[in-house]
Specification:
3-stranded antiparallel β-sheet, mainly beta, 4-stranded antiparallel β-sheet
Length: 93
């Protein structure tokens, strides 16, 4: 049964360019790898925008086509930073 959806094409808060990976933390917050915008976005489980982080680049906290995202039981967020050939680890914002 379909429940809901959110987002549209763009680079603003809650907008996406090639969203690829999705993960949910223990509180039900949803993290999306927004690949084309080189960032991670966080939402409530009903789609309310909460936060975003990341810019284009190769430094710490920067991404070049982040593709996957995961959350561990401690709430740490792992991002597959595809074109930088690395995994980055973050605390929940």
């Amino acid at each position: 049964t379909f429940l809901t959806n959110w987002g549209s094409l763009g680079s603003g808060d809650g907008e996406f360019s090639q969203p690829s990976g999705v993960a949910v933390d223990g509180s039900g917050n949803v993290f999306v790898a927004d690949t084309g915008n080189n960032r991670i976005q966080e939402f409530t489980n009903t789609g309310t925008f909460l936060a975003k982080w990341g810019t284009t680049g190769s430094g710490d906290g920067e991404f070049f086509a982040p593709y996957g995202v995961g959350v561990d039981t401690s709430g740490n967020i792992f991002v597959a930073d595809t074109n930088n050939n690395r995994i980055q680890k973050f605390t929940c914002p």
